[in-house]
Each structure stands twice: as C-alpha cells, then as structure tokens.
Amino acid sequence: MPVDFNGTWNLVSNDNFEGYMVALGIDFATRKIAKMLKPQKVIKQEGDSFYIHTTSTFRDYVLQFKVGEEFEEDNKGLDNRKCKTLITWENDKLVCVQTGEKKNRGWTHWLEGDDLHLELRCENQVCRQVFKRA
Asked: How far from chain centre, in Å, is Cα 16?
C-alpha cells in the first residue's frame, strides 16, 4: 500500500532555492520574487494517481501523473522547458526523473510525521523544502 500524501501542505523551510533556480536558468527578477513566496501544495492521491496543485501569490502549477507512466511535462510558468518525466516509488518515496535540457533534474517527495519533504535537483544544485500539514 503506497504512502498517503493526501492533504494541504504549507511551506515552512526552503534551503538553497536560489541555487536551484540559478541552475534552471531562471532570471534574476523572478528569482527574487520566488524566494519570498510561501507556496501551498494541495495533493490529491488515489492509489498511484496524483494531482498536485502548488499555489502562491505569484504563480500556480498543476501536475497530474500516474506513478510508473512516463509523460511529457511542460514546465510553463516555472522554467518554460519541456521534458520527459517519470515518477516511481522507491520504498515510501516518490522519485521523479526529468529528462531534457538540464542534467540531473528531478525531485523526491516523502513524509516524516506531519512533514512533507521535497528535494529538488538540477545539475549540481539541491534544494530542500519542508511543508507542514495545514
């Protein structure tokens, strides 16, 4: 039985977000705005099917996927690149690999108590975010 990620999650810590955004090639002005945001994630999960809606005062982003099924992801509103995305289970963690222009790109989500952890990777940068259940 997969871990239950359902819920509303509020960002409480965001380590090395600037470095991660630089690796993605995000412009200076957008980086300055993005660093000040405290996004909220709403995750709806039915088995291996996920709907993740990330909202902030600046941008919204929706990601829908089924674990184990590769799809083309359009990162419009983020770094505006397209990539092939595959999300799999590694024990109780959701692990995403994004293949495209940027090397070593992807993310990992996992739960520890009432904390949702997100590790974002791009090239040689790693950003670590923690969200608390709302």
From this structure: 14
Give the number of other Cβ atoms within 10 Å of residue 29's Cβ. Answer: 8
Q: What is the DSSP letter of 85?
A: E
Q: What percent of the chain has pLDDT over 90?
A: 74
Average pLDDT over residues 86-108: 94
- What is the C-alpha to C-alpha distance for residues 14 and 61, in angstroms, rounded to an integer? 18
Is the pLDDT confidence value at 1 over 60?
no
Q: Is residue 98 a contact partner of residue 79, using CB atoms and an 8 Å limit?
A: no
Cβ-defined contacts of 17-21 (< 8 Å, 24+): 17/127, 17/129, 19/125, 19/127, 20/120, 20/121, 20/122, 20/125, 20/126, 20/127
Burial pattern 87-126, b for ≥16 Cβ within 10 A else e, equals beeeeeebbbbbeeebeebbbbbbbeeeebebbbbbeebb
